Records
---
Amino acid sequence: MNLLTQNISDFFSLFFPEVCAGCGCSLVSNEEEICTGCLVNLPYTNFHLIPDNSVARQFWGRVPFTFCGAFLYFSKGTKVQNLLHQLKYNNRPDVGTKLGIAYGKQLLESSSIVLPDIIVPVPLHPKRQKKRGYNQSESFAQGLSQSLNIPVNTSCLQRGTFTATQTKKSRFLRFENMKDVFTLSYGETLQGKHILLVDDIITTGATIEACAHPILKVSGTTISIAGIAYTG
């Protein structure tokens, strides 16, 4: 950025300051999307260092996986909730990408993680994606892709049924709601591949499980699982 461009940017920032998606404070020079204070103090799970972690236990006996984890702990009324609200409802896919980049860097630091061949985000129904304008899980996947240098595939997995929000459903109803929701196309492109399935929030794991089943029917596939946040 040249001096003139910097001066113009600084002038506009006086009247239209960019604010942190986590805490709402003004961002300073060289900060983007999330301020340094939030990035330092977010509730990181460090599940990439703990094979027997809480997310992994969610899928024991349900989905065979290579790695399972989530980047952050989710609690209501916190900066993590603010970040996810901005990501999903305030047209901020850049927040998901930022978090994906940061999580990818964490995964690279762990010698125990077997890196996948392909990243597959949990798809939205086309109607919901058209209304929102983007898929928040895909933005997270794109951030992971930048850090891990692994491609994202958004064409193989589709959501064929429009499902109501899962937020207020019981564990049983979440599983019932997700039965046979996802279908797979171009399965041959996944043969023999290690796929990282990514979602925004992992609660019961019903959505991820529903995505994993058609993928695991493809010869030689293995699954890893990652979320932006875990609600446990």
Note: The chain has two domains: 1-39, 42-230.
---
Amino acid sequence: MYPKNIILLGSTGSIGKSTLKLLRNNRDKFNLIGVSAHNNVSLLSEIVNEFQVPHVVLSNPLNSKNYFGKSELNVGHEALVELAKINCDLVVSGIIGISGLYSAFAAINAGNHLAIANKETLVTAGKIFIDKANEKKCNLLPIDSEHSAIFQCLDINNTKNLDFITLTSSGGPFLNKKVEDFKDIKPENALKHPIWEMGKKISIDSSTMINKALEIIEASVLFDLSADKIEVVVHPEHIIHGLVHYNDGSIIANMGFPDMITPLSVALNWPKRLNLNLKKMSLSNIGKLTFFEPDLKKFPGLKFGWDAISNIKCSPIVLNGSNEVTVDYFLKGKINFTDIHYVIEKTLNNYSPTKPENIDDVIEIDKITRIKTLNIIKEI
């Protein structure tokens, strides 16, 4: 039934902007009833006025005096959680980092379907979210292009015949760079992704391929897969986003130009599809598609993903938290590019927490992780 009522958490970030573009072009299909932002109150105000959004939250109250939206502004973390609870057809979680956990969990706990764009939700609290979604009979819909690809290709009624899945990676900006030159990489180099336009944090994650490590964990949670059932291949053209391999030798692949609009439309309009009027793909014009194994000597952080699934000592929460800290320090020029892997690995070796029982446990483990990571950085 149309229109679908949508709540968009993180409306001013890259995912938020892509979501708004989709809604803008399909106003008869979607009704934006709630939006949030953290700092960008000016853009938030413009969004509220353009879409006539009734429910508005600024999670950081410092800039609230500059709000000029037509609807009442609510501020603070609790207001963000309450926004996610409002009855709707779908909540889109586009808040970067672990700060989006409480609001995303509040959405499904209230019975709302959840479209997930931030990896941290399932990486750090995957089982908690899956269990709650099953209890509330809510859909968890992936927005990441690779997970959306698997979601579209996977026959949920035939999972017993699944052999394994393949996640593809463009290889990032340093695919062809010599490993001995990695020590000289600067933040401005790492931010230049050859395929995707992304925020700073995820761009650095792509350059280290730790983003793919996080996606391995996310795929494991979403599709209930062990480490040996998840393959990663480098595919520079990034036309194929994911493949599902079945025991009878059949392989189903999802193809498309690299554009977040398509996976967003799949999540927002599931189980139906939208006519996006996108550029048609011509395989003859593409010419060839290349694939090869990732180089773990150049990108050792990729292995963290498989370790986090199969090795109890490698905590996904510690991996995620330590990565967020090291990326921030690299962007500020306080550590080298090669220090990112070194610091994360040392943090993982020094801290093996027990599995969390709830979101508060996740936040506490994350807090301890950040302290330990900072202490390791001070020793460099």
Note: DSSP finds 15 helices and eleven strands in the chain.
---
Amino acid sequence: MSIKAEEISALIKQQLQGYNNELDVEETGIVTYVGDGIARAHGLENALSSELLEFSNGVYGMAQNLETNDVGIMILGEDTGIREGDTVKRTGRIMEVPVGDDLVGRVVNSLGQPIDGKGSITAADHKPIEHKAPGIMARQSVFEPLQTGIKAIDSLVPIGRGQRELIIGDRKTGKTSIAIDTILNQKDQNMICIYVAIGQKESTVRSSVRTLEQYGAMDYTIVVNAGPSEPASLLYIAPYAGATMGEYFMNNGQHVLIVYDDLSKQADAYRELSLILRRPPGREAYPGDIFYTHSRLLERAAKLNDKLGGGSMTALPIVETRAGDVSAYIPTNVISITDGQIFLNADMFYSGVRPAVDAGTSVSRVGGDAQIKAMKKVAGTLRLDLASYKELESFAQFGSDLDAATQAKLNRGARTVEVLKQPLHSPLPVEKQVLILYCLTRKYLDKIQLDDIEQYQNDIFDFFDTHHADLLEEIAKTGKLPDTDKLDTAIDEFAKTFQPNKKDEEEAALGD
């Protein structure tokens, strides 16, 4: 069989046309140490800080320490399949997570992977978990209220869209409950909520997700979970992943509420990683950049200016204290970064005052800018009433020896405390909060027994829903108090029909 010279020539030309002279070069290193969630690798001379690195078994890591001889790597997953001598290569990318509308209603891990068994997620895009916070000119002042539905917060420590308000208190004082109730109250408010659970027990997170599903809140909520059994690296990056997911919506002109529950556990995870990476320890063995860790996260919450779409991201970081000590390292750091704090008092909580918001220690630095005018009017004296009550409370046992003015202050304070109590998962619309606080400040409750105040509150809400819905609607739409004569007439009308429940008194009489 003869081969023609023309055929050979054509074949060579065809091969030359398809020839690619670009070399596929990958920078790889050798793992020299692995253990406790970190690895060290030699040979990655050009690795960048926070660059994503891939181990030979497919697990990813994030470059942390860029040292002379080797690179310290935070392993983003299980380290059991990695051995000394394995190869690790640069990817040229930094840590990213999926973002987009498809994440809403899902439970994901710190890498944005679904863990709720509802199938895969089609991401609109992938964004780096580290992103520079909006600058001064990109922001505008916080002025729109974010209603939590909790009377003690909306009246005393109002939160605005774009604010960072710390929730702080001892363990088991209702911090998570306040955050969950705030998410429940965002229904029909054009708000995307993100709940980041850091180091929370799996059963606790499951209970929170069940509550959100029960009240229809998962329709607008993303849950990011980094459980206590996961590597410390995933606990550390969880809040950054949540912030990135929130920024996608904020940059598209939407409003976002993000809860970090809690940053104490994230700080502990970062301390663990830093000590294993042999970074110099500082106060309480935390690394020197622990403040920057939280500040660069919380500064990402903002109210953007109108040119950038006017979107907002409101952050509710949670920090746990020990024995009410707010002067510990992490609490003082986060207090100095945020725009105020809601302090939950353990003594109040255990005495039955729930939510246990301590009005004396709690503050919102945005203040009245984040309150509707009606709430400003009715809540103006609440803080003073509570302060006077706390001051005089210790003398309450000598009630018979007190003058009329002091007795009146005690009575007003006791009723204020009673009105601010609220059952779990029962957020109130702002117009109903204004109504009951109006009754309190206009002395309509002065003649009501303390035990009957809860019933009075429930009955007046039902009465207004049925007979004076227009007044409630006016508060909700305009943000202002309706004509006070109309309001007083309606409350007087209700007072004539109000019948305290005598069942308990009858049972007591029968017992005697």
Note: The CA atoms of residues 68 and 254 lie 45 Å apart.
